[in-house]
Each structure stands twice: as C-alpha cells, then as structure tokens.
Amino acid sequence: MPDRKRERVEIEIPSKAIRIKNAGCPNGHSLMDPDHKINGYPSVKVLIRYKDQEGLIYLDPIYGSFKNIHVLNVSQGDVVDFYCPECKTSLTAAGKICRECSSRMFAIHLPHGGIIEGCLKNGCHYHNLRLIDGNELLKKLDEEDMLDSYL
Ligand SMILES: [Zn+2]
Ligand SMILES: [Zn+2]
What are the residue boundaries of the structural domains of the chain, listed by start? Predict the structure, then answer.
C-alpha cells in the first residue's frame, strides 16, 4: 500500500499567477523579508556563496517572475549555492538536477509540505513547484484560491 499522505503532486502553475508568502528553510526559519520588497511584496531572502564571497540575494516572491536583487555580482551562467541566512543550512536540493541546464538546484520549503525548486545557475529560469501531501490538496483542488493556503 502506498502511503497516500506522501503522495507527490506536481502542478503546472501559470507564470506570475501566485506569490510566495511563507517560504522557509528546512529548520523552519522564515525566509521572508518585509524590509526588502519586490513588486511591492516581501522578498525571499537567502544567503549565497559564490567564489569565496558571501552575500544576500532577495528573490522575487512572484512565481515565474525574476526581478531578483543580487548583492553580489554573479556572472551570467555561473552557479551559486543558497543557504538560510539564519542557520546557514544549505538550501541546495540533494540529487536534483535542472531539467534545462543540468545545474544543481535549490529547494525552499512552503507550509503544508510544498517545495519550490529552482535552478542555481544565474540566468536559468527553470522552477518547479511541488506540493506534497496529496490527500489534502486533492480535496481542495476545486476550491477557488486553494493554492493560496499553500504558499
Ligand atoms: Zn534556517
Ligand atoms: Zn537551469
């Protein structure tokens, strides 16, 4: 018997239709930063390491939009690593490879088991939103705004 609770649901999200409101690290620290807004909304703040430098990056909270604010100057096509600014836990997704460019990927956690994975290569815009916990999700699929509670 498969454990239906761990069922994996992948959803194709229309670009720019949703906004990340509650992203966190695996240890539960919020990555949301109301002091740095992008598109008028709190950004997702992560620490990056790149060529022996450390700096913050503010990610656009609109899914599919990429008005990210880099503090470090990362060359186009270079791959970085993401960490939680709070506990320095790596946000690199173990064993995940970008479908577009084969670079490693990050994973950011959402409430209720959702995960956003994204490519760590600067300039590659491959993202994938995954919501785990299939039962609860499938029940709500008909409801308007149901995705909202997952973000
Ligand atoms: Zn953390
Ligand atoms: Zn990529």
Answer: 4-150
Burial class (CB in 10 A: 0-12, 13-18, 19+), 141: exposed
Task: List, for residues 28-73, the tens digit of each pLDDT value.
Answer: 999 999 999 998 999 999 999 999 899 999 999 988 888 888 888 8
Question: With contact defined as beta carbons under 8 Å apart, do 36 and 15 qualify?
Answer: no
**What amino acid is encoded at 147 in this protein?**
L
Give the closest ligand to the alpha carbon of residue 31: 1
CA of 72 to the centre of ligand 2 (A): 19
pLDDT in tens, 112-145: 788 889 999 998 988 887 776 655 555 555 555 5
* pTM, entire model: 0.79
Residue 25 corresponds to which tokens in the numbers above? 């690290």
Residues recorded for the chain: 151
Neighbouring residues of the ion ligand 1, judged by CB less than 5 Å: 25, 27, 29, 84, 86-87
- Residues 133, 131: Cα–Cα separation, whole Å: 7
